[in-house]
Design goal:
There is one protein chain. It is built from six helices and no strands. The chain is mainly α and 169 residues long.
Amino acid sequence: MRLYALLLFLHVLASIVWVGGMFVIHFAVRPAALEVLAPPQRLALLAAVLRRFFGWVTVSSLVVLVTGLLMFVAVGVAAGAIAAGRNAFVEGLRIAHPSIHAMFALGLVMVAIYAFIRTLPFVRLRAAVAAQDWPAAAAQLDRIRVLVATNLALGIVVVGTATLGRAFG
């Protein structure tokens, strides 16, 4: 189970980077930028911050997905799936607590939302900032803000599910 402990560590660390980063950007960086910067500087700054943050989120979301899937496999292996001729991943899914299934489903939704942000509104934000089209940039940044707030709320639910799920189910 040392492998499982390592997977869990990486899973939690990547989750902290992703969810904690969303919290900092949403509740600290963005409000501070609104307070002290004019729209052109604010939009350029936030586009640059998001570019760097989204690089970390890409890595973090992949780590969360891969380690989560591998933890299902590890649980299946520990349950003797391979020795019994069964698929370790499927066995891990079968015996996992319902809270784990909830985390998995919510995590997939979060990854889908992030993929959408990264491929549409963020690309449009960067293009609008490069063109100095501040109204278009502001519209895309607002769209990103709403989606990040949604993902942050989902991330908080996932943390609650991870820490409280077995207590209530």
